[in-house]
Design brief:
Elements lengths: L3 E4 L5 E6 L5 E8 L13 H8 L11 H8 L3 E6 L4 E8 L3 H13 L5 H20 L2 H13 L13 H6 L2 H11 L5 E7 L3 H12 L22 E7 L5 E8 L5 H14 L5 H9 L3 E8 L6 E9 L5 H17 L4 H17 L4 H15 L4 H11 L2 H11 L6 E7 L15 E2 L9
Parallel strand pairs: 2-6, 7-11, 7-12
Antiparallel strand pairs: 1-2, 3-5, 3-6, 4-5, 8-10, 8-11, 9-10
Helix pairs in contact: 1-4, 3-8, 9-12, 9-14, 9-15, 11-15, 12-14
Amino acid sequence: MVIERFRLDNGMVVLVLADHQAPVICYQTWFAVGSRHERPGKTGISHLFEHLMFGQTESVPHGKFDRLLEEAGADGNAATYLDWTYYTISLPREALDLVVRLEADRLQNLVLRDDTVASEREVVANERRQAVEDDVDGAVAERLYETVFREHGYRWPTIGYMPDILGLTTEDCRRFYGTYYAPNNATLAVVGDVAPDELVARLEEHYGSIPAAAVPIEDVRPEPPQTQERRLSLDKPTASEKLVVAYRSPAFGDFDHSALIVLNEILVGGRASRLHRVLVQQRELASSVRAYVGTYRDPSLWDFWLVARKGVELATLHAALDELLAEVRQQPVSESELQRAQARVELSSLQGLETVSGRATQIGFCETVLGDPAALFDKVEEVQRVRRADVLRVARQYLRDEARTVLEVHREDSPTTAVAGDGDAHRDEQTQEQEPS
């Protein structure tokens, strides 16, 4: 797989991966802006603006962007997260000229009006109601990040807080557009049935005249070390009580991240994993277990989510979890466990490259987060270089009780007692999350 990398005179990075097996293309535009770049009082603007980018331009009326894609047999979507925002279009080869024109057009000629912004604000507000305020896991995840992060922009949710969403103005959006939606803050990842030189010539024609912008240097506030366990007890309308335990994790580009991915696979990767085998199958304390190591530019979280079986106390479930995590801190994992985990991680990574859209997503993500479109292959190699000693070392370094955050989610009708930690734990007796002051 040969990725060709170009840079236009205005700073736009172009990644091209030719694949002529089928007459299809995936065309993605990645912007190095996400919720981490926002500030208190204006949270959610990255996500709101993602919605607005499907609106009217100076030459394309409202609603016509999607219709033109559909008529050409193409399909578009987008996503926003902590570190990035991206737009993806899957298209037949013959629709490439249309997509290049449409994408270059909305990068420089988007029309932002009060009525359009107001309409999309309400759409996003409804998304927040469904994904956070009326969803237990969404509400818990939001409280988790608020509890863990005190300084870093990972603290606030990508969807934004409701008062902030409703308070975003048309001028806020215009300022955001002019600041971050610039060619020198963007990466085009194009994979499929294309000729790289011809493609770049087309891109020069349509994007070349768009001026670069003075993208501000991000004022990153590193998260200070956590030296005491933090605990929070929540009452929620849930049928099953839940336990969430989060530890700090390294940045995606750190070698320790690869070692943690392997350890995570040993602990929760499939039915043969340690936590599933012991907590779900043998002791029947949990109905499900899962965990995720954050793949972010900066250090983030390794969080475990456990759903307790009916009648099981969360304290009992937590004690059992602690026993299993203590085992990987005390003794090396077996060679067979290591090899199984490495094989599963490699397979998962390679499966993500089976389609043109999967390849475009991987190279666009790695370029935006790590500055290297081929970093995925380096990560796969890193995983294969992980040894049992590395797994033991990261287990001891990151699975530390004093640096963890624990959230207990109880049924609203279940009598529980709040527990204190880090001097600021509290109990939320409401069924809805309370907006921050």
